[in-house]
Amino acid sequence: MKNTIISIIIASTLIILAIVFTSGKKSTPEQNIQNETIVNNVSIVDGKQIIEIKAKGGYTPRVSIAKADTPTILRFNTNGTFDCSSSVRIPSMNISKFLPQSGITDIDLGIQKTGTLQGTCGMGMYPFEIEFQ
């Protein structure tokens, strides 16, 4: 009986310590994809805005905010990508593109009006969107 009580106390202490240590970790924006955290991934180069998205196990960030009425390049960065996120689809623009396993792929989106552009992987499992404001 004494050994059982000691075992329960030790197990409870370990569980409490695990909860304390894991709850103190802060997530970075790139780790917080499920919460649709917006990351500063848009830059302007030579009058064109470039939206950079990492493709591996989904798309990071999942939601991007960009300027409307501006020439736009969507840049996908792959690094050892073997899953379905290496196939990109943007149905509203009739875009379907296979990405290399590693490298940079640019897709010219032209000038977008205010609104949301939605894309997905080839299987429809990993969505992403760009909010043009």
Topology:
Layout: H1 2-23, E1 42-45, E2 48-55, E3 59-60, E4 63-66, E5 71-79, E6 87-90, E7 95-98, E8 102-111, E9 115-121, E10 127-132
Keywords:
single chain, 133 residues, alpha+beta, Immunoglobulin-like, 5-stranded mixed β-sheet, 1 helix, elongated
What features would you describe in this structure?
The chain has 133 residues and is of the alpha+beta class. It has one domain (33-132): Sandwich (Immunoglobulin-like). The chain is built from one helix and ten strands. The chain has one helix at residues 2-23, and strands spanning 42-45, 48-55, 59-60, 63-66, 71-79, 87-90, 95-98, 102-111, 115-121, 127-132. Strands 1, 2, 3, 5 and 8 form a five-stranded mixed β-sheet that branches. β2 (48-55) and β3 (59-60) form a beta hairpin.
Question: What's the helix-strand series?
Answer: HEEEEEEEEEE
Distance between the termini: 67 Å
Main sheet?
5 strands, mixed
Q: Indicate the proportion of strand residues.
A: 35-45%
Kindly give the count of domains: 1
Mean pLDDT: 86
Total E-strand runs = 10
Shape: elongated
CATH class wording: Mainly Beta
Provide a compact summary of the structure.
With 133 residues, the chain is of the alpha+beta class. It contains one helix and ten strands. The chain has one helix at 2-23, and strands spanning 42-45, 48-55, 59-60, 63-66, 71-79, 87-90, 95-98, 102-111, 115-121, 127-132.
